[in-house]
């Protein structure tokens, strides 16, 4: 019970000391990691294997900022059975430190993994597997891998989209299976080339790639355009993925831009998230150019809602 109380007290300390809301907390065997909404990690607890990521093996009774010369972090991970720590960057890179196959790694190191689960499956002691790992040879491709490889490949495609003067090669059957819009469109036309004018090449290519891979890989500002497309095509899952991408990439500089987009495309959950971020970083957000250029009606509604939220009490 004392350990739980200490951890809760430390979380309060992080929030009060940094004035930054926490978005994720992970607990290891005897250490804790906390991620702020700006992508910084604080750690405290036991450090016999360097699991705090401070560059040494000294235990820390109070939360300590881990200094990383990396891009914004969006995920932290620890396991209650191990002294291992992991984190994931906005671009998908995975870092690890602590007890790694019996060795002590006192500072975060870059790995070849694409998710933090694999860190604990391959390097933690004892190993912990949260999802299935493929043990097939390199010459075997799953269905998902095969589809991904054939995206935008002209070899066996039977349809191409022309966007901003650039071609994207696809397969009619897959598009019909994955998207109601294309099922209706391709049942009415035998064209081998379709021109697209209302969306950019970057956005439309990301949309078609999503149909092949079920994932999106865009920075938050470009994900706004994909959110517009998802709304237009009534792709609810894609719309949710866009919102999650935008949430992970929000900063003080782009918060108002993302809030405006959420309002425009009626993404209520994203709108509330962006609004709370703006209120929690009100001073910095109001000094940005995006705030100065804010639409009058949106500005009026923002000030009114922020006032009700208690943002101007002090």
TrEMBL record:
BTB domain residues: 157-220
InterPro entries, per the entry: BACK, BTB/POZ_dom, Reg_chr_condens, Signaling_Regulatory_Domain
UniProt keyword annotation of Signal present: yes
Keyword field: Repeat, Signal
RCC repeat segments: 39-90
Signal peptide: 1-17
Pfam families with a match to the protein in the record: BACK, BTB, RCC1
Record-linked PROSITE patterns: BTB, RCC1_3
Name by which UniProt lists this protein: RCC1 and BTB domain-containing protein 2-like
Lineage per the UniProt record: Eukaryota, Metazoa, Chordata, Craniata, Vertebrata
């Amino acid at each position: 019970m004392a350990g739980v109380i200490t951890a809760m007290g430390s979380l309060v300390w992080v929030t009060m000391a940094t004035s930054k809301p926490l978005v994720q907390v992970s607990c290891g065997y005897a250490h804790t990691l906390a991620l702020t909404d700006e992508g910084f990690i604080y750690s405290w607890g036991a450090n016999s294997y360097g699991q705090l990521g401070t560059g040494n093996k000294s235990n820390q009774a109070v939360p300590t900022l881990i200094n990383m010369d990396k891009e914004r972090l969006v995920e932290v991970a620890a396991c209650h059975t191990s002294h291992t720590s992991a984190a994931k960057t906005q671009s998908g890179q995975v870092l690890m430190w602590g007890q790694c196959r019996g060795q002590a790694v006192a500072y975060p190191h870059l790995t070849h993994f694409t998710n933090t689960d694999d860190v604990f499956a391959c390097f933690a002691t004892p190993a912990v597997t949260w999802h299935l790992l493929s043990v097939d040879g390199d010459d075997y491709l799953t269905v998902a891998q095969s589809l991904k490889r054939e995206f935008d490949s002209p070899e066996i495609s039977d349809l191409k989209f022309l966007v901003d003067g650039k071609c994207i090669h696809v397969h009619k059957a897959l598009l019909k299976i994955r998207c109601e819009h294309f099922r209706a469109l391709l049942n009415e036309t035998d064209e081998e080339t379709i021109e697209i004018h209302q969306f950019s090449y970057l956005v439309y290519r990301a949309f078609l790639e999503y149909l092949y891979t079920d994932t999106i890989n865009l920075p938050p500002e470009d994900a706004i355009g994909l959110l517009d497309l998802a709304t237009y095509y009534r792709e609810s899952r894609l719309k949710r993925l866009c919102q999650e991408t935008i949430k992970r990439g929000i900063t003080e500089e782009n918060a108002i831009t993302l809030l405006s987009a959420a309002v425009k495309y009626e993404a209520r959950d994203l709108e509330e998230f962006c609004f709370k971020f703006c209120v929690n970083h009100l001073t910095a957000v109001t000094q940005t150019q995006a705030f100065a250029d804010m639409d009058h009606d949106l500005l009026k509604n923002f000030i009114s809602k922020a006032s009700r939220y208690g943002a101007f009490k002090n």
